Amino acid sequence: MRQDPRFPNLFILNHPLIQHKLSHMRAKDTSTRTFRELLKEITLLMGYEITRDLPMTTREIETPLVTLDAPVIAGKKLAIVPILRAGIGMSDGLLELVPSARVGHIGVFRDPETHLPVEYLVRLPDTADRIFILCDPMVATGNSAVYAVDVLKKRGVSDEQILFLALVAAPEGITVFQNAHPKVKVFVASLDSHLNDHMYIVPGLGDAGDRIFGTK
Ligand code: URA
Question: Is ligand 1 within 6 A of the CB of residue 142?
Answer without folding.
Answer: no
